[in-house]
UniProtKB/TrEMBL annotation:
It comes from Rhynchospora pubera. Keywords: Membrane, Transmembrane, Transmembrane helix. This is Nucleotide-sugar transporter family protein. Residues 26-313 form the Sugar phosphate transporter domain. One of its GO terms (cellular component) is membrane. The chain crosses the membrane at residues 21-40, 52-77, 89-110, 116-136, 143-160, 166-183, 204-221, 241-262, 269-290, 296-313.
Amino acid sequence: MTAKGGANGAGSPMSGANGRLFTVGLITSWYSSNIGVLLLNKYLLSNYGFKYPIFLTMCHMTACSLLSYIAIAWFKFVPLQTVRSRVQFFKISALSLVFCGSVVSGNISLRYLPVSFNQAVGATTPFFTAVFAYLMTVKREAWITYITLIPVVTGVIIASGGEPSFHLFGFIMCIGATAARALKTVLQGILLSSEGEKLNSMNLLLYMAPVAVVLLLPATLIMEENVVGKTIQLAREDFKIIWYLLFNSCLAYFVNLTNFLVTKHTSPLTLQVLGNAKGAVAVVVSVLIFRNPVTVTGMLGYSITVAGVVLYSEAKKRNK
């Protein structure tokens, strides 16, 4: 992103430098928040022993509700887009349900799987997106695009075989989270396709997050017995858990905010490249922090999957 020069060219290099510095800062914030929330989720759910993924997700959604409202209604960060009909609200609620399923399943999987393997499975999102788009819309990709999905799936199969910390239930949850994430993308394109119903990602989060809290509250109370009492008990023993939950929840909102800003201030190609690299960075950082064992087979599988994702992106771009 570079600033446009005016009549006086002397200020342009400085403006351009400031623009580049802003973009670099934005990308760094995007990477830090994405990887940070992933690692903190892993630490809380697996290492710290906070065994309540639904409650944790509800904390995230509560923070997203409050901070979205503050950013849009108070700070006018983006113009407020209103929900125009009951039908549109039900569509947003359906998206929120799928979104909840994705986040909760992903958090559950982190209790059982290392971040490195979680990211390898998560990289298969394009495969599920292509499958759902094929089944739910009339949209068909070129045959070469579907062929590029073969290494995406093959890589995960290889990585699964070479994963020393493989856990079947965790793997199923991770696949479910990845599929739900892809389903949300396809559903969003179908349900909010008309110009009057389209919402930018910040406004969509503003409406989805409170619905998610309403859905998750009974789920956590029923499925995670006495979760509030146990969290209060934990806080009495170690008050740091409250700070962890607050910071983690705010970071979850920051992921959405930086994702919106990076999308706005970079090109689609840059975003694609950065997105592919982000998973690899998360894997390296998580292995360094958690010291989970990594095999050559596992890394080979993950590399094949990432290569397949890159090829898939390239094939889609060329066949547009």
